[in-house]
Amino acid sequence: MDTNTYDVVVIGAGPVGENIADRVVQGGLTVAVVERELVGGECSYWACMPTKALLRSGAALRAARQVPGAREAVTGELDVAAVLRRRDSFAAHWQDDGQAAWLEQVGVPLYRGHGRIVSTRAVEVTTGEDGATVTLTARHAVVVATGSRVLVPDVEGLREAAPWTSREAAASSTVPGRLAVIGGGVVAAEMATAYAGLGASVTVLARDGVLPSAEPFAGERVVASLREAGVSVLLGAEAATVKRAGDGTVSLTLTSGAQIDADEVLVAVGRVPNTRDIGLEAVGLTPGDWLTVDGTLRVVGAEGAPVGDGWLYAAGDVNRRVLLTHQGKYQARAVGDTIVARAKGEAVDDGRWGRHAATADERAVPQVVFTDPEIASVGLTAAAAEAAGLRIRVVDHDLAAVAGSTLQAEDYRGQARMVVDEDRKVIVGFTLAGPDVAELLHAATIAVVGEVPLDRLWHAVPAFPTVSEVWLRLLEGYGR
Ligand SMILES: Cc1cc2nc3c(=O)[nH]c(=O)nc-3n(C[C@H](O)[C@H](O)[C@H](O)COP(=O)(O)OP(=O)(O)OC[C@H]3O[C@@H](n4cnc5c(N)ncnc54)[C@H](O)[C@@H]3O)c2cc1C
Ligand SMILES: NC(=O)c1ccc[n+]([C@@H]2O[C@H](COP(=O)([O-])OP(=O)(O)OC[C@H]3O[C@@H](n4cnc5c(N)ncnc54)[C@H](O)[C@@H]3O)[C@@H](O)[C@H]2O)c1
Q: Which residues bind NAD(+) (predicted)?
């Protein structure tokens, strides 16, 4: 038997590629994984984990300062070196031995190198700097899980100024004195929060506002608290030119003519797919494009038909459905099980909420933005629900007006919003803004995914005195 032939070949060992391999092995097929950097991908080393570690100490300090008794015990500021050390450990010191060992343990061969599709079901891996290659052949499927990287916009001088991307922001061993941030999305909001907490003087150029795709109150509360923390948030501001001087200072000239000087500039205006050099031309697709997929995550061409006989799949960031680790891993479970089912000639259950469909990607995506306050949301915002043609009713409640919140912290500030589909009497969207609301989100996710009728939710009684009592207040606000 050709030892380079497997049932499935996965290109990319980020969180998504790892989980695809796991499902395929669980299903009794063989699989090989190709990775050119670190097993674990962006999330483990330069995204979710290190950034949340950078944010967590500041959040813990704020929480302690909001509770009399604990407040008095806090006698200093953040220990920056200790925060960075903890971050380093959460990034596994940028070593992937642990995750590579896991692949070995579950019986998945790892090919280290750059993977490129060369023909139907064949992936060539360039394994070393000498250009040595090995070709892997898949009996059933190839899955592209190559993720995404930062988008650097065409701002004059920006590339030459060697800006920070999310990678440098996540992994820096120093805190710049002055940090300018271009962008107002999730990365910009979280990194402005983290670096302000670590002592940097931060300016945010939020051309399109802060967290513009969330409920408006979310962005407003984050802007207010960033400003309270000393961050200069310039709404509507856009960089026109960027220049780094010999002493390292970066000068940004805005379209308004104003100038901002900083020690580093972080660019955080979105992502592009890692598809430039993966052999898409070999299957009639355009290198550099996001991959479009059908309901079972098979890559489709311009006409909407699967590539070839449907042997090519794409999951995670690279298909642009949802750029979040947990949704990518959810897709991984679906795609892994689908490939196994098709290989065994079993029926594929790709109907709405079917075992092989990633239905939640459409209308039930949970996300937590770890700013101050935390923004936890699932499903549609009111604006998105209206744009989707739903007849909705919005119910808001002040999170501070719940017994559990008053106990949680002095001067607790927050807001909750429930978006109800009036025709079906179910929740289609839920957003919480407040300290420590992240862990409240899953209840809302279950209500949205389960399409639990409002009159049944009255029987889901929140414990007293918890912040979850906001559920009762929202139902009372809606009326019985
Ligand atoms: C700063 C930041 C913070 C984030 N925080 C969160 C968060 O808190 N929660 C959350 O859910 N999401 C978060 N995300 C998003 C999350 O990181 C991504 O959604 C997730 O990493 C996508 O996983 P993936 O496996 O699709 O891609 P990736 O993690 O990008 O992994 C792809 C892998 O493929 C490899 N690869 C690429 N091309 C090739 C090739 N040709 N050959 C071989 N290997 C290749 C890469 O080296 C990489 O290891 C964050 C993103 C950023 C930028
Ligand atoms: N906690 C989390 O879940 C988390 C944290 C970080 C990142 N992520 C994920 O990573 C992805 C990337 O995050 P991101 O913040 O880079 O992207 P984003 O899409 O969240 O935000 C980018 C922002 O930049 C703005 N923008 C676009 N082009 C611009 C330009 N030329 N000049 C100025 N502003 C411009 C957009 O209006 C948008 O608000 C997101 O999809 C997000 O889901 C998730």
A: 183-190, 270
**For 352-361, how does the pLDDT look when each residue is reduced to its tens digit (9 = 90+)?**
999 999 999 9
Q: Is 243 annotated as a binding residue?
A: no
pLDDT digit string, tens, across residues 264-277: 999 999 999 999 99
Is the minimum distance from the CB of 324 to ligand 1 under 6 angstroms?
Answer: yes
Cβ atoms of 447 and 428 closer than 8 Å? no
CA dihedral for 469, 217, 190, 75, sign (positive or negative): negative
Choose which residue among 146, 319, 368 to substitute to test ligand 1 binding: the one with the highest number of ligand atoms within 8 A of its C-beta: 146
Q: Say if ligand 2 is within 6 A of residue 153 CB.
A: yes
Ligand 1: does its nearest atom lie under 6 Å from the Cβ of 147?
A: yes
Beta pairing class for 114-119 and 122-126: antiparallel
| Count of CA atoms in the C-beta half-sphere (13 A) of 184 | 26
- From the CB of 354, is ligand 2 less than 6 Å away? no
* Backbone phi and psi for residue 82, each to the nearest 5 degrees, phi listed first: -70, -35
Q: Which domains does the chain have, with CATH numbers?
A: 2-45+91-149+272-360 (3.50.50.60), 159-269 (3.50.50.60), 373-478 (3.30.390.30)
* Beta strand segments in 380-436, E: 392-398, 415-421, 426-434
pTM above 0.90, yes or no: yes
> ipTM, 2 decimals?
0.98
DSSP string, 237-276: --EEEEEE-TTS-EEEEETTS-EEEESEEEE-S-EEES-T
The minimum-distance atom of ligand 1 relative to the CA of 113 is 43
The one-letter amino acid code at 4 reads N
188 C-beta closer than 6 A to ligand 2? yes
Residue 186 among known ligand-binding residues: yes
- Written as six digits, the tokens of 416 are 């909750």
Q: pLDDT tens across 73-95, in order? A: 999 999 999 999 999 999 999 99
